[in-house]
Design brief:
Length: 380
């Protein structure tokens, strides 16, 4: 299947699956535990039904969205994906450039394989996602580096108090250093393009952490170090300290309740991202789309409420805006694109979603994202 035959994000996923070793594909595709929360995101989005209003004039339509005082060319941005370069080499750079050229946000993960300093060379308007460990030291230094690199928006992720357990990864021996079974080694041998590209580009690292590692760090110690870089202590005092250390726009990502939403707002967040981390952390988590309306009601327009988790089609994006999202992100769809066909694949993912949004707007009689509200969804 070539890129010209790709019509949907599901097609890109199928192509990616063929090109990427199973261990890396499962890391991208899988979720917490056996994957219940991934299924829940998809099922909850499918349950939302759009209510057409065809007695309207939707002949001129725009997909642009204003967010933090800037007009973004499209309604969907690229969520932070840690260790994406293991799925396809240079994915961080590919996604950052794709978003920058398209005029939509790209969020660099703390756990990316490209440093803050390098990503801004490709995408000067990139956002940065922050994890915090038990001590503030590294997080505060990363905020300093992000500021010096010219980053304007930071998203603190709060939904990884402890690392998720993903059984697909555990069964594949996906850890660093890799512990592949014979079957896994054979599977790698069937993916020559991935192997050649990975050899050419070098083994991905956790580039943002390199300044804090000692010089002899190898993949194994880096991975152990990474696992220690999340913390179950996200007390209000810590959040307030981090907020105060950042002069720019400060977002909190991983909100699933009105309580966390109101706390984050009180502690100074300039925006929230309703997310269950694409179903990768808490297996019993509710779908992000189901939590969105109550958070939107509680925040009542005071700060932007964004959303990710499970978005695979333009109709999904439209549903999220109808239910009150001020902006929407996706993670896996763009990495499927990059793994399927590099930069052209990532661009294709964005083009597919944008074309589907435009078509869905027309089909429900709306001319812009700002037009969308709860009257466009069937009451639930
Ligand atoms: C993620 N996500 C994530 N989020 C974050 O805040 N920091 C991170 O380092 C990562 N890493 C990461 C790796 C991989 C492989 C995936 C798929 C996801 C979560 C991500 O930002 C986003 O919340 C989800 O990907 C959204 O769900 P969909 O669009 O993938 O369904």
């Amino acid at each position: 299947m070539g890129l010209d035959r790709i019509q949907t994000i599901a097609d890109l996923r199928r192509l990616a699956k063929r090109r990427v070793p199973r261990m890396a594909f499962d890391f991208l595709d899988g979720g917490a535990g056996e994957g219940l929360a991934v299924c829940e995101n998809a099922a909850a989005l499918a349950r939302v039904k759009l209510q057409p209003r065809n007695l309207s004039d939707a002949s001129v339509r725009t997909r642009s969205v204003e967010l933090f005082g800037l007009r973004r060319s499209g309604p969907i941005g690229i969520a932070p994906v840690g260790f994406a370069n293991v799925i396809w080499p240079h994915t961080d750079t590919i996604l950052a450039r794709t978003a920058h050229e398209a005029g939509v946000p790209y969020v660099l993960s703390t756990a990316a394989s490209t440093s803050i300093e390098d990503i801004v060379k490709v995408a000067p308007d990139a956002w940065f996602q922050l994890y915090v460990s038990d001590s503030d030291e590294i997080a505060l230094d990363m905020l300093r580096r992000a500021g010096e690199a010219g980053i304007k928006v930071v998203a603190l992720t709060i939904d990884v108090p402890v690392p998720g357990r993903r059984y697909r990864d555990m069964r594949n021996g996906f850890s660093l250093p890799l512990k592949p079974s014979l079957a896994t080694i054979l599977d790698f041998a069937l993916r020559p393009a991935w192997i050649l590209e990975t050899l050419r580009r070098g083994t991905p690292t956790f580039a943002n952490y390199v300044p804090y590692m000692n010089e002899n760090a190898n993949a194994g110690t880096l991975a152990a170090f990474m696992a220690s870089q999340v913390s179950p202590n996200l007390s209000p005092e810590r959040i307030a300290r981090l907020r105060d250390a950042w002069p720019g726009t400060f977002l909190v990502k991983g909100i699933l309740s009105t309580r966390d939403a109101l706390d984050a707002e009180r502690l100074g967040a300039d925006g929230l991202i309703v997310s269950n981390h694409g179903g990768r952390q808490l297996e019993a988590a509710p779908a992000a789309i189901d939590c969105l309306p109550e958070v939107v009601r509680a925040i009542n327009g005071r700060i932007p409420v964004m959303m990710d988790s499970g978005i695979r089609t333009g109709a999904d994006i439209v549903k999220a805006y109808c239910l009150g999202a001020d902006y929407v992100f996706a993670g896996r769809p763009f990495v499927f694109g990059s793994a399927a066909a590099g930069e052209a694949g990532a661009r294709r993912a964005l083009d597919i979603l944008n074309a589907e949004v435009d078509q869905t707007l027309g089909q429900i009689g709306a001319s812009s994202m700002a037009d969308l509200d709860e009257s466009h969804v069937r009451p639930r």
